[in-house]
Design goal:
By secondary structure, this protein is an all-alpha fold. It has a single domain, classed as Arc Repressor Mutant, subunit A (Orthogonal Bundle), CATH 1.10.10. It is built from 4 helices and no strands.
Length: 63
């Protein structure tokens, strides 16, 4: 199944606006999770605060 512009728009909206994880998006749209994850290089960046997680890990190492 090719990724249509409509499907791509839904995936990006669910990911960025609704903050849904890729597995939830795949289940909702009835597509394989790889289809959702394949959009990663083209604008599907993680919405988690990676700097905060890294900061916590540094404190854990120093303690």
């Amino acid at each position: 199944m090719p990724v249509t512009p409509e499907l791509r728009a839904k995936i990006l909206r669910y990911y960025h606006a609704e903050k849904w994880p890729t597995g939830t998006i795949a289940r909702q749209l009835k597509v394989h999770h790889g289809t959702v994850e394949s959009l990663a290089p083209s604008g599907l960046a993680p919405h988690r605060n990676c700097a905060r997680i890294k900061h916590r890990c540094l404190f854990a190492v120093r303690s």
